[in-house]
Specification:
Elements (H helix, E strand, L loop, with lengths): L43 E8 L3 E15 L2 E7 L13 E9 L2 E9 L23 H6 L7 E2 L7 E6 L5 E15 L2 E16 L5 H4 L1 E8 L3 E9 L4 E9 L20 E8 L3 E15 L2 E10 L2 E12 L2 E13 L22 H6 L15 E3 L5 H6 L1 E16 L2 E14 L7 E8 L3 E9 L4 E6 L2
Antiparallel strand pairs: 1-2, 1-12, 2-3, 3-4, 4-5, 5-6, 7-8, 8-9, 9-10, 10-11, 11-12, 13-14, 13-23, 14-15, 15-16, 16-17, 18-19, 19-20, 20-21, 21-22, 22-23
């Protein structure tokens, strides 16, 4: 058998029918209120920041919405008129952000020079545009793209660069929610905690530019607290004093398809007519860059000998199959798949559990799936040209007990009705079960040729 090739497939955007619960799913990029950093008209934030060694007396600074264009917006800030006295750090500036499907980006900034007593965060003292003297400077240091990755799910990690010359690197991880008390919320508020390990090399102030930073984010408000433990032993802090904004219900951070580096699962799959002897295969996430994962599949035992690589991206518009390649030799004679418009050597094949899961159209799952969500295939899309499949998918709800060799799980049930014209084996009803923090645990594909494919997680 000639090795089949899965072509690289461009992600298509699909409209999701969102449920009523505001806390279940993320808002669209154009929503100016329901965001981790919102930008409604009249928005304002007043912070207080300090540095234990270089600016021990707290300085107040006020940020206001200056302008907006589409999903991009500018915040302006000043220390004037806030009662700052001797020993505080005067300043003013602006910082530009953009919301994207990958998260919040910082695209530019400008301000008065940093205080002269602060460490120089460049290789040379002349024309150094880097600063940590201010709340949003602490926020964007080392992670401008993105400042905050989205969707923000359990286990989310990302690497980023920052500084004027992209000479500051960071490894960022979401560590769940934590209740924090700040002057703006004296009774405490639940916030998303993001911890960043930051490294700067080549600057005169490297020890100050490196360290461990923790940011607490409140949905509908923005960052409410920042703590930066510098590698040289110093500490910087900022906290929200007051804001015109109100907290909003945050999207649920449950991760139903974890794609972190090192994630591994072992599956067996059978078909009642065409693959009665189980094929056992191991799925491993080997590389993740900007929340796009390379997922490898290899055979362990059974009549199918396969090696495959798939690319899956996690964005606010869902988990998307970008394509990949498989090479396989099979003793099992599986019926052909379409589409009829594609040459025979370019048509789809079911060789792995991922082939069965990803087949049809994107997204594989919404970013924040919840019962009642639906989406459809779109004729004319890249997916339709590749698979030739029409259909509809619905997040049905939760099943309390799904038992497979890997254990017993509460799972999210997702049902897809798929039609590939002229190919009954590529048509039918697929039911997938996803466990929180685990991923796919079971899949049943009832093909229209009368056969049933079953995938079960072994570990």
């Amino acid at each position: 058998m000639a090795p089949p090739v899965r072509l690289l497939v461009a992600a298509c955007l699909l409209a999701l029918a969102l449920p009523a619960s505001a806390s279940a799913s993320a808002a669209g990029l154009s929503d100016v209120v329901n965001q981790w950093l919102p930008d409604p008209d009249g928005a304002s934030w007043t912070y207080q920041w300090s540095d234990a060694q270089y600016a021990p007396k707290p300085t107040r600074e006020k940020y206001t919405l200056d302008s907006r264009a589409g999903t991009s917006f500018r915040l302006a800030w000043t220390t004037d008129g806030l009662g700052n006295g001797d020993g505080t750090q005067p300043g003013a500036g602006q910082v530009d952000y953009q919301r994207t499907e990958a998260g919040l980006l910082n695209v530019n900034w400008a301000s008065t020079p940093p205080p002269p007593q602060f460490p120089i965060l460049c290789a040379s003292a002349s024309q150094c545009a880097n600063s940590l003297a201010g709340t949003h400077y602490m926020l964007i240091w080392g992670n401008r793209s993105p400042v905050l990755a989205e969707p923000l799910l359990q286990g989310t990690r990302w690497s980023a660069l920052g500084g004027a010359g992209n000479d500051v690197g960071s490894d960022n991880r979401y560590e769940g929610t934590q209740r924090v008390v700040v002057p703006a919320f004296p009774k405490g508020i639940l916030a998303a905690k993001v911890v960043s390990t930051i490294t700067q090399a080549g600057a005169l102030g490297d020890p100050y530019g490196s360290g461990l930073r923790t940011v607490w984010w409140v949905y509908g408000v923005g960052p409410v607290k920042i703590h930066f433990a510098h590698a040289g032993g110093d500490t910087s802090d900022a906290e929200l004093l007051e804001t015109s904004l109100k907290p909003r219900p945050a999207p649920v951070d449950t991760n139903y398809l974890p794609l972190g580096t090192g994630e591994t699962a072992r599956f067996r799959w059978t078909n009642t007519k065409h693959l009665r002897k189980p094929a056992v295969e191991t799925v491993t996430v080997n590389t993740v860059v900007n929340n796009t994962a390379r997922v490898d599949v290899k055979s362990d035992s059974g009549p199918i000998n396969v090696a495959g690589t798939y690319l899956l991206s996690t964005r606010l518009n869902g988990i998307t199959d970008l394509g990949g390649t498989t090479k396989a030799a099979s003793l099992a004679k599986l019926p052909p798949l379409g589409p009829a418009s594609a040459p025979k050597d370019r048509r789809r094949h079911f060789f792995t559990p991922l082939d069965l899961l990803l087949y049809g159209y994107n997204p594989v799952l919404p970013a924040y799936p919840s019962p009642g969500m639906t989406w459809r295939s779109a004729k004319g899309s890249a997916d339709y040209k590749t698979f030739g499949v029409t259909g509809r998918t619905k997040v049905v709800g939760f099943v309390r007990r799904v038992t497979v060799p890997a254990g017993r799980f509460k799972a999210l049930k997702v049902v897809s009705t798929l039609t590939q014209k002229g190919f009954p084996f590529g048509s039918g009803t697929r039911t997938s079960y996803f466990a929180a923090g685990v991923g796919l645990v079971k899949l049943v594909f009832r093909h229209r040729d009368g056969s049933v494919s079953t995938v079960e997680r072994l570990r």
